[in-house]
Design brief:
4-stranded antiparallel β-sheet, alpha+beta, globular, N-terminal domain of MutM-like DNA repair proteins, Helicase, Ruva Protein, domain 3, 6 helices
Length: 261
């Protein structure tokens, strides 16, 4: 699933290409919106809210989309045929005289009144990359679930929005916390959340993701994706196990020595 920094960068690029311009293409290729044509609308803003993308229109409506596990928005110059994925994977196209944004396998497409956006994203906690970011509120939200495993609590977007499995694993490693530790047993929740925030901020302006500071192949992450490989800190083989209840379990990576528990 795309992390919050990927969604933020996607929205940032869509905003640069679409905002302030009238749409000459506004196709939504899903059954419930098959008769909706957004051409002629003017895009005023595109922004990320957690892992949701909100495309606001001057008419007072918002197009909502979610990338989930496999969705993406891809930009091409107007007049160029997008070739990132096969045609049948296209769910939406928004274009103007300069740019064409194509949504491949984007999910939860809805057109709602902009004032009704809270019905779609109002349940989310403070956004790690949003203007509403509030570390104290995020920590308070986590403390409301003291018996939850910290690895699962970090992924619950109701507590704080934008963390995915990669940053969950990496932040817990950085703070030497076992992913199965109960929230109440985490010694410094604020420091853990601040580390996660720092990781996302450091990676939001480019598609590459590194938590180690290195872009060398196999050196970008401390533990994520490094099952059975030596820990970059102590050389112990990195462990892997699924965490959570099906179908919402996530593969978790951690170092048994650096993250005892």
């Amino acid at each position: 699933m795309p992390e919050g920094d990927t969604v933020w960068l996607t929205a940032h690029r869509l905003h640069a290409a679409l905002s302030g311009r009238a749409l000459t293409v506004g196709e939504l290729r899903v059954p419930q919106l098959a008769t909706t044509d957004l051409s002629g609308e003017t895009v005023t803003e595109v922004l990320a809210r957690g892992k949701h993308i909100l495309t606001r229109l001057a008419s007072g409506y918002t197009l909502h989309s979610h990338l989930r596990m496999d969705g993406s928005w891809y930009l091409t110059r107007a007049g160029q045929r997008p070739r990132r994925h096969p045609e049948h994977m296209i769910r939406a196209q928004l274009g103007n005289a300069e740019w064409l944004a194509t949504g491949y396998r984007v999910h939860d497409l809805q057109v709602v009144a902009t004032g009704a956006e809270p019905e779609l994203v109002g349940h989310l906690g403070p956004d790690l990359l949003g203007p509403d970011w509030d570390l104290d509120r995020a920590v308070a939200n986590l403390r409301r679930v003291p018996e939850a495993e910290i690895g699962q609590a970090l992924l619950d977007q109701r507590n704080l929005a934008g963390i995915g499995n990669l940053y969950k694993c990496e932040a817990l490693f950085a703070e030497r916390i076992n992913p199965w530790t109960q929230v109440a047993e985490v010694p410094d929740l604020a420091k853990l959340v601040a580390t996660t925030h720092r990781f996302l901020r450091a990676n939001r302006d480019h598609p590459e993701q590194s938590t180690t500071g290195s872009m060398g192949r196999g050196q970008e992450h401390w533990v994520y994706g490094r099952r059975h490989e030596p820990c970059l800190r102590c050389r112990t083989p990195v462990a892997y196990a699924e965490q959570g209840t099906p179908p919402y379990q996530r593969g978790t990576y951690w170092c048994p020595r650096c993250q005892r528990g």
